[in-house]
Each structure stands twice: as structure tokens, then as C-alpha cells.
Design goal:
504 residues; 16 strands; binds adenosine-5'-diphosphate; nine-stranded mixed sheet; binds zinc ion; alpha+beta; three-stranded antiparallel sheet; binds magnesium ion; single chain
Length: 504
């Protein structure tokens, strides 16, 4: 559930150094609660536009503000997206579930309660597979996925006052609760990355931690290795980046261990990650926990999921990230490392496949060239321009296929390929056209290359002697001399072969 409370006390725990031997005695246990803001057109229970607005309180109405006498109406897209995610995570889908009111007071909750689900979440008992290291998989249980609405946003301005923006109030959320199945901060990090990738592939959430469209609360405990019962957990809130998720969990694990080692006891408290101080701070303890007085939402009927709807959502399921990764590896013969990066963003993977389909020769060697090109040259440009491949209209699969074909056909060298690519990106000129216009075609005619080699060796008697008497590293000097003489266009393979022959 979403929690909005006043900060109560903020003692800072300075971390004592713990030896690796002591750390190794303990096993961390971690479970994550995620909130995904959905990419629907309208809010969960009213027709207000969903999505971000620059103007505070621009997308609000009496329903999402909770004015008396208004009635919520369920957005079916909200339910469909929950079912889609439930299917993608092997969950059971509950045929009939109810909404509940979670009552609490907070300035950004003008209704005085949040509509959520309580005892009967729409999806339950699923799992996702995460790849901990290349090729090493682990299943993480999904306890439940339920429907709920978001609250507004308090803006704490030091100069003015606390202001409230209700644009976010009533936005559709899915809360995704994992089983306590993770055993290290690194595993929790992998789980987060996997879930973000999943909601993006499904097109239900843009998964932006920094902007809060995907939020994470981490539950952490430790126990002596071999113990079967879990230790007391604490919950960390306010983790708004992947780095913070991993750092905060690591910090909290060590804090628990230090506490236990010094004879203390972990108390069940809610912590907050303080990114500037790089530590967790206590927000409130269990005794201060609220009684939310849950009861069934009387203004909404039951959520009924028909078999036909489940079938429809099954049809909507795209190929999932891990399956796509394994397929790319298999079909194109590229390494798992390459396939992993390509499938981080579905659009990038599709770009790769599209490019491969346009190659003049279908071969694993060329597929690998395409992969190399995407992973180095293209990703570099995307990260410089801070865009995804889908927004980078100046880079089209056809041009990349042309470059790879030119290179694989030994018509251009890798150095010229880079020049051709740079020219294509800045002017849009097609690689084939540019190469023929500028006469950049590689010289692969044996006799012509031989002529260049021989003329480059003229006047080099002294160096040739040295080479023959064992100074092998002079080869590099000869190669670069020949390449220079050819304007960078001589076929490097032929240069190597002919030089070796004439130097013998
Ligand atoms: P609460 O009643 O405090 O909300 P839940 O049992 O609902 O606790 O679990 C909330 C989250 O905490 C889940 O993601 C769950 O996996 C995780 N969790 C539960 N117990 C532990 C534990 N001992 N250590 C770490 N995580 C835990
Ligand atoms: Mg709970
Ligand atoms: Zn509204």
C-alpha cells in the first residue's frame, strides 16, 4: 500500500566497519514492493487525463478530489493492464475481486482514503525469472499484484509553504509485491531491472524511477546462515534510482548485522534512504503504524474477470524480454552479452532484427557485425543525444545494413565504415551512395594492391633487412605505410598477405 506519513525522528546510524568474515556469517533476505504508474489515457476512476502536466491541479475533477456526492467509475484499461502483467508473471487471476478503502489523513489525500485492494488482489501467486549473472537464472515469487489509485503530491517549498498538486491523485497504479526471495542487494537490483523491462515491454508503464512512474520500497532482514526463520525486517522507502535501491539495501543489511553483532536487536521500523547523506534514517516504528480501517469500497462493484478477457490479454502478450534474449542468441548466433544489451530496450532489439533482415547475405558473421555496430556506434550516439532508438529517426536499419554489407563484402575498411556512418548520421546520405561518390571503395584487386605494396617497400632496404633478421614488430610500420599510400583504401587482408610474401 502507499504510505504517506509525517517524518517522526531521524537518528543517523553511523556505519561501523564490519569485517568480510562477519558479513559472510549472515544471509540477507529481501522482498520488494513496487508501484507502477500505468500508461492509460484517463485516470483510474474518472475521465481526467492521465499523465504528466506542467500546470499543477490542471487535471483534476470532483471525483479524483473526492468531493461528496461524486461516484467513481472503474477504468477497464486499468484492469486489463493488471491482467496482462499478471499473465506475464505467471500469476493466478482472480475471477472476482473487490476494492477496499484505506483510510488515513494526509494533505495530499483530499478524499481521506485511498481506493485499493486488500484481501483479494486481482493477481496472486506468480513468479518472474531473473538472470543473476550471464546464463544463471533464479525465480522470484510474486505474492500479489493489485489495483489501486495514486495520491496527490505535496511540494515542500522552503520559501513559500507546503503546496499540494492533485494531478497525480486518482492515477491508476499496480502494486506488485514480491516474495522475500532475494538474497543480496545485487539480486534485488536485477529484479528491479527485470520488472522495469517487463512493464516496458508490455507497454503498461514507462518505468522511470527518477520521475516516480515506477517506485520501490525494499524490505530487508538478515539471519545467520543455516537458520530457517527470517529475521525482523525493516522497510526502506524513497528509493528513486536503481543505484539507490542497491546502495540502500546494502547499507541496511550492514546496519542490521552491526546491530546484531553488537548485541542489539533489529526493530521493525520504516526507514528512509537519504541520498545526500548516503544512509538510511528511521521514519517511524511499528508502534506508530496506522490502523487504516480497511473496508470494502461501497461505491464500486466487484471486479469480474471473464475468461474471454483473459484470452484477449493472452493474445496481447508480446514476446517477453528473457525469451527474446534467448531467441536472439539462438537464431543470430550472437553472444548472451550482446543479446542482453539489445533486448534491454525492445525497440533496439527490433532495430537489430530489422537491420539483419535487410542484409544482402544472411550469415551469423554479418549478424555479429550488426550487433557490434549497434552496441558501439549506435548506442554511443543515442547516449550522447539522450534518446532511444525509436526517437532517433536519423538512424535507419537500411543504412546500417548497407554499411555492414559494404564492410563484409570487403568493399570498405572498418575505418572508412565509421566515416561513412558519421556522414550518414549528419547528412542522411546513404552509405552506398557516399562510398561511390567519394570513391572510398576498398582496393581489393590483387595486382593493384601488390603495386602499392612494392612501391611502399622501395627505399626500405635497411628496414627490410632488420625485419628479416627478427624485428617482427616492423610489420606494423610497413602496413601503415601501405595503407597511407593507398589513402586508407587497400584491403587490409591483402596488404597483410602480400607484405608477408614480399618481405620473406
Ligand atoms: P507487512 O505486513 O509488513 O506489509 P508483508 O508480509 O505484507 O509485510 O510483506 C511485505 C513485503 O516484505 C513483501 O515484499 C515481503 O516479501 C517482504 N518481507 C516479508 N517478510 C520479510 C522478511 N523477514 N525479510 C525481508 N522481507 C520480508
Ligand atoms: Mg503487507
Ligand atoms: Zn478526475
Amino acid at each position: 500500500m502507499l504510505d504517506f506519513h509525517f517524518t517522526i525522528s531521524l537518528p543517523i546510524f553511523c556505519m561501523p566497519d564490519i569485517s568480510p568474515e562477519i558479513l559472510a556469517k549472515y544471509e540477507p533476505v529481501i522482498g520488494l514492493e513496487l508501484h507502477a504508474q500505468l500508461l492509460t489515457n484517463t485516470k483510474a476512476f474518472c475521465s481526467c487525463k492521465a499523465g504528466y502536466s506542467d500546470i499543477p491541479n490542471a487535471t483534476v475533477c470532483p471525483i479524483c478530489l473526492g468531493h461528496p456526492g461524486t461516484l467513481p467509475v472503474l477504468n477497464t484499461k486499468h484492469v486489463e493492464m493488471a491482467v496482462l502483467l499478471g499473465l506475464a508473471t505467471q500469476c493466478s487471476i482472480r475471477p472476482i475481486s473487490a476494492f477496499a478503502r484505506k483510510n488515513y489523513f494526509y494533505p495530499d489525500l483530499s478524499k481521506g482514503y485511498q481506493i485499493t485492494q486488500f484481501n483479494d488482489p486481482i493477481c496472486y501467486q506468480g513468479n518472474v525469472t531473473i538472470e543473476i549473472e550471464e546464463g544463471s537464472m533464479k525465480q522470484i515469487g510474486i505474492t500479489r499484484i493489485h489495483l489501486e489509485e495514486d495520491a496527490g503530491k505535496s511540494l515542500h517549498d522552503i520559501d513559500i509553504d507546503t503546496l499540494v498538486d492533485f494531478n497525480r491523485a486518482g492515477m491508476p497504479l499496480l502494486e506488485i509485491v514480491s516474495e522475500p526471495d532475494m538474497r543480496s542487494a545485487a539480486e534485488a537490483y536485477r529484479y528491479m531491472v527485470t520488472m522495469r523491462q517487463l512493464v516496458r515491454y508490455l507497454g503498461i508503464c514507462d518505468g522511470n524511477l527518477e520521475e516516480g512512474s515506477l517506485r520501490c520500497d525494499a524490505n530487508v532482514s538478515v539471519r545467520l546462515k543455516g537458520n530457517s526463520v527470517f529475521g525482523t525486517k525493516t522497510e526502506i522507502k524513497n528509493l528513486n534510482s536503481f543505484r539507490n535501491v542497491e546502495k540502500a539495501i546494502s547499507y541496511e543489511i550492514e546496519r542490521h548485522i552491526a546491530l546484531i553483532e553488537s548485541g542489539g536487536e533489529v526493530r521493525q521500523v520504516t526507514m528512509q534512504w537519504d541520498a545526500s547523506a548516503q544512509c538510511t534514517k528511521e521514519m517511524r516504528s511499528k508502534e506508530q503504524a496506522h490502523d487504516y480501517r480497511y473496508f470494502q469500497e461501497p461505491d464500486l462493484g466487484y471486479v469480474r474477470i471473464e475468461e474471454t478477457m483473459i484470452a484477449q490479454q493472452k493474445d496481447q502478450l508480446p514476446e517477453l524480454p528473457l525469451a527474446m534474449k534467448l531467441r536472439l542468441q539462438q537464431h543470430y548466433g550472437i553472444p548472451g552479452y550482446d543479446a542482453g544489451i539489445l533486448t534491454e530496450d525492445k525497440d533496439l532489439a527490433l532495430f537489430f532484427e530489422h537491420t539483419c533482415s535487410l542484409l544482402s547475405v544472411q550469415s551469423k558473421e554479418r549478424y555479429k557485425f550488426v550487433s557490434n555496430w549497434v552496441l558501439t556506434e549506435i548506442l554511443k550516439i543515442l547516449s550522447d543525444r539522450k534518446v532511444g532508438i525509436a526517437q532517433a529517426e536519423m538512424i535507419q536499419p537500411k543504412a546500417i545494413a548497407e554499411i555492414v554489407d559494404l564492410f563484409a563484402d570487403e568493399k570498405i575498411s572498418s575505418k572508412i565504415a565509421k566515416e561513412v556512418f558519421a556522414e550518414y548520421v549528419s547528412t542522411g546520405i546513404s552509405p552506398n551512395e557516399y562510398v561511390s561518390q567519394k570513391g572510398l571503395m576498398q582496393i581489393s584487386d590483387r595486382e593493384e594492391v601488390e603495386r602499392i605494396v612494392l612501391s611502399a617497400l622501395e627505399g626500405e632496404e635497411e628496414n627490410i633487412e632488420k625485419y628479416r633478421s627478427g624485428k617482427n614488430n616492423l610489420m606494423g610500420y610497413f602496413i601503415s605505410k601501405v595503407m597511407k599510400a593507398s589513402g586508407g583504401k587497400a584491403n587490409p587482408r591483402l596488404v597483410n598477405e602480400l607484405l608477408t610474401q614480399h618481405l620473406q
